[in-house]
Amino acid sequence: MNKILIISLSALLSAPAFAGMQPFFAKNIPEEWPSYEIKDYNGQVEDGYDGPLSNILVIYDPSIKPEQLNRYLVQQTAIANKAHDINNIKYRRNVVAAIPMKLEGDNVAEVADSFEFGAFDEIRRKYGASVVSLVINSNLADGQCGVQTSYHTVTAFNEPCSLPTLLAHEWGHVDRLGHEYEHTWSHFEDDNYAWRCGGKPTIMSADLNYDQFDLNEFYSDPNVTRGGEACGTVTANNAKVLLETISDIEYARWAQVPPLEKIGNVTIALDENQSSEFEKVITVTRDGDVSQAASIEVYSDAVTAVPATDYQELAKRVEFAPNETTKTVTLQLVNPAPADAICDDGERALKLGTRWGEKLGSSNQLDLTVKTPEDTLASCAKDKESEPTPEKPDNGNGGGGGGGGGGSTGLLSLFSLALFLFRRRN
Ligand SMILES: [Zn+2]
């Protein structure tokens, strides 16, 4: 068992302003994040690619918002694959499914201690993945953002751990890459030799308190140069280690579990008759060889609609039994409480698609619009005449004007309480 601490909390807390890369963490979407199409989720590997494929099953804490997580995953695989291109290595990381599951433990160290070697083997085989990446919430009591053990990685998804190369780093460990230090000392036995180039550390650097968001997006490699400086030596050469690892079929993780064969595609459609202003009903139909069990995830992705305000984010895995061809899923549109009603009857857009199929591909995407239900607009604050604050009668015997104010206060208190509970749950 090889567990590796990679980033100290103190290093993260002294992080400089982001430079060069986009930070990826739970709070900065949907406004700041790109919106993705089906092809981005299902096309992390370009058409026609025929080289080694590191298929990854992601298991994530159910409290993590799926749209945030999924954009994060696409970004992380894109960075890992870009690194392979820069290092001139034919190799691709590819998320094949993301499954919500509550794990034991409140931080990376506790979660990593809670399972044994060989855990999650059955589920990784179900999805044709060789690597299992656990993405968790963390109280940061252990001061760690990520570890790797065997074919598992455990990483925290929060602002202090928003390193854009975090998963690429841990996936590197899965493939036997050691740390690269910019100093000659090290407290890790398995470290490679120190390296950085052009003033920036590489992905496998373990000492990231220097411009952590402005990394070299590749592994150490004497054949790669930045600013005329070679980014590796004979001994600091993680590119070579990676190439040797993925070529070593006896060891290579990527070769341990065969990828799944695609047996058909899935089409989604809006069932207008069953849908209402509070709920959209989506039919999910598969074609091809329907004799085998298979599954696929139906997901939502914000365009101008706001998750949790205009609709409830969707990340629903639809399981087809043998010979079952059609299922339905529902997208819940939020019925806004008066306190947070959107005072706008305009249409707001989102997309639905299918991704990360178990033996299934995706045929289409739905562009949907939602609008605030008519009968909630009346209670929306902006639509109401502003009411003068009722004056309290001096004698305390109760004038006629107090009732409406009391009702509003009660409602406001209730809303505050709901917010408080929500925060407590975090
Ligand atoms: Zn590490």
TrEMBL record:
Keyword Membrane appears in the UniProt entry: yes
Chain residue ranges for the region called Disordered: 380-407
Bias (Gly residues) ranges: 396-407
Keywords: Membrane, Signal, Transmembrane, Transmembrane helix
Keyword Membrane: yes
Superkingdom per UniProt: Bacteria
Transmembrane domains' residue ranges: 402-422
Signal peptide coordinates: 1-19
Compositionally skewed regions (Basic and acidic residues) per UniProt: 381-394
Cited SUPFAM superfamilies: CalX-like (SSF141072)
Official protein name in the record: GlyGly-CTERM sorting domain-containing protein
Organism from which the protein derives: Photobacterium angustum
